[in-house]
């Protein structure tokens, strides 16, 4: 509690010089971006422990523990909520990439780094793996990989090259989690007993209206929803995800991704005589 309000404390369980550097990096970047509504707001820092404890506004992480296991995403999140989350986190990443004299790369976009406050605003947190790209350069090279399996951009995973596309790829993989409720796997994408060896197969399934093979069914249980509008949005959402991971057309930058998600959110269905069911 801080001044009679609930807060979120970020306390590291590990120590050492490497972790110390990460903690101070998290603190530094958090202070730089706290003014933006789509970042976890830093309220202060407690120095009474071995390492600083960051005190942030309270928000709930979008993952959830069910039956002792950690779900990649809270199944109660509706489709419309997931679009908003994607749009707002894209805005946050676009800000990191463009707001400073040097491009700032997050490097670890994944569900457990993303929070929702009580008003449903999406917040990006955890900046311990962030890295600046020097002015006049388009990449930095690292010897030690940092990030999460399933969200690592191939060029970074194989060569250690950190670019804007490092975040774009991770964000595309995160979009896949929002859509399917499952963690993406390198080289193949699995949905229960249905193995999709190529992500483009997912796009064809959406085009053929085979939603049962693609989407997280939990998000579609909403009374009075517009099924045709959802189909249009899901198709566009998946195609954008495939672009982000380099499997369909040119890889966009995060500013363009944010603009496209805003367009997808506004997509409206065309009235028709026959109503479909998913």
Describe the structure.
Keywords: ATP-binding, Nucleotide-binding. This is Protein kinase domain-containing protein. Residues 1-238 form the Protein kinase domain. The protein has 278 residues and is α+β, with helices and mostly antiparallel strands. The chain folds into two domains: 1-58, Phosphorylase Kinase, domain 1, CATH 3.30.200; 59-265, Transferase(Phosphotransferase) domain 1 (Transferase(Phosphotransferase), domain 1). The chain has helices spanning 17-33, 79-98, 154-159, 164-180, 200-207, 227-244, 254-265; strands at 7-10, 42-46, 53-57, 60-61, 64-66, 69-71, 103-105, 114-116, 122-124, 131-133, 140-141, 161-162, 189-191, 194-196. A three-stranded antiparallel beta sheet has the order 1-3-2, with helices on one face. The chain has a three-stranded antiparallel beta sheet with strand order 4-8-9. A hairpin with a 2-residue loop joins β13 and β14 (194-196). The longest helix has 20 residues, at 79-98. It starts with 6 loop residues before the first strand and ends in a 13-residue tail after the last helix.
